[in-house]
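Case study 2.
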Amino acid sequence: MNNLGSEKIQKIVDKNSEEEFSPMNPPDAYNPPNSQPILYDKLHPLLQELVDEHKLFDKILDKFEVALHNWKSENWIFNENINISFRNFFEFMDHTIPLHNQKEEREVFPFVKRLMIEKKEYNFVNSSYTGIDILEDEHLKVAQAAAVVFNFLGLGSQLPDEKSRNITFQVVFDQGRAIIETMKLHIYREENIIFSDANFYLQQKGNIK
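Prediction:
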């Protein structure tokens, strides 16, 4: 590339870097501009219950993440601690998460979505698509990714060829990390953005409509 082309690109980068929330300077996912966290003791009991469950989820995710890294560093060899962390994670994904998600989707998300639409906080192309739809999509995608992890884990354990087994287990590792990152950001968005609207509604109405 000639110098003129390089200078032109650099000017574009410099210009975009100065603009708030430009592609070259996006907002921090864990510090969104409309973040309004509410103190735990100010939350409605239903939201306190969901936050308590989130704290349990964080602990299980942290242990699963440690187990994943230990498993990889040990060249995909399982030990007792790794087995326990993996088993707890899959039981958690199989039994606890679906009940938690149902609670959110039935008792919190519907009226928060209505509030978002009323406040014009929606997709500019489709006014019926809000942040709630993104959260519901993440519920589904995490469940699907967990199924991939579980199935590939079983598949890899049955493969006699070491190279194929290592490739399969690498997919398990990558998908496992993706689940952890998605769930942690998902929880942050709920507690710091969504639950603000939910708390206002619940405190005003006293119950779910």
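Residues 162-205 form the longest helix (44 residues).
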